[in-house]
Write a structure and sequence with these properties.
Number of strands: 5
Bound molecules: flavin mononucleotide
Helix content: 25-40%
Number of domains: 1
CATH topology: Rossmann fold
CATH superfamily: Flavin prenyltransferase-like
CATH class: Alpha Beta
Distance between the termini: 28 Å
Strand order of the largest sheet: 2-1-3-4-5
CATH architecture: 3-Layer(aba) Sandwich
Strand content: 15-25%
Order of helices and strands: EHEHHEHHEHHEH
Largest sheet: 5 strands, parallel
Shape: globular
Radius of gyration: 15 Å
């Protein structure tokens, strides 16, 4: 059987507990072929060479020059994790000025099952843009793992829980809707 494809979008934030490399490894262990797309700022937080080594595919950061390369085909599922305040709000508002944000916007438009995991500190979480952005993404069909009742430092779920949601979103598991 062909491997299922997961696009992992990473941005300029990191979990204090688990790395993006851990996330790719855990996804690979669940049978996902992983293509990582990073914001330019994300490359400072998540080493593209390490990520490529684990995923077996180069990390995409920049838009390809017009008329060159291959268009990315819609994957089985897209995961944006960790997702910064900046990229969350840009996705919701439709500002596609990084490849990573453009890919999320396009794949939502293609109906690709999408899971978003914002990672915000408390002051950013208080910004009035956050609630409407989360609601917009949910209204577009994305599953957004963001529990405003949890303290900011515990709001980022463990990767296994994130991947349970990815599996559920792709219809590959029975964890159910969140
Ligand atoms: C050390 C450091 C940690 C950061 N942590 C976060 C964070 O947890 N969440 C967040 O939204 N932004 C965080 N930022 C700010 C983002 O990196 C910044 O807003 C950047 O413009 C995000 O760009 P991107 O969304 O294109 O990746 C952090 C910045 C630095 C320097």
């Amino acid at each position: 059987m062909d491997e299922r494809t997961l696009y992992l979008v990473v941005t300029g934030a990191s979990s204090p507990r688990e790395s993006a490399v851990d996330l790719v490894r855990a996804a690979r262990d669940r049978g996902w072929a992983v293509t990582v797309v990073s914001t330019p700022m994300g490359t400072r937080f998540h080493d593209p060479h390490e990520l490529a080594g684990i995923s077996g595919d180069r990390v995409r950061v920049d838009f390809r020059p017009p008329g060159t390369g291959e268009r990315l085909l819609p994957p089985d599922v897209l995961l944006a994790c960790p997702l910064t305040f900046n990229s969350l709000n840009k996705i919701a508002a439709g500002f596609a000025d990084t490849m990573a944000v453009a890919v999320v916007c396009e794949m939502l438009g293609c109906g690709v099952p999408t899971v978003c995991v914002p990672h915000l500190n408390e002051p950013l979480a208080r910004h009035p843009a956050v609630g409407p952005s989360v609601q917009t993404l949910r209204a577009m069909g994305a599953r957004v793992l963001y529990d405003t009742d949890s303290p900011a430092e515990n709001r980022l779920p463990p990767w296994q829980e994130v991947l349970d949601t990815v599996d559920a979103a792709a219809g590959a598991d029975t964890v159910g809707q969140r």
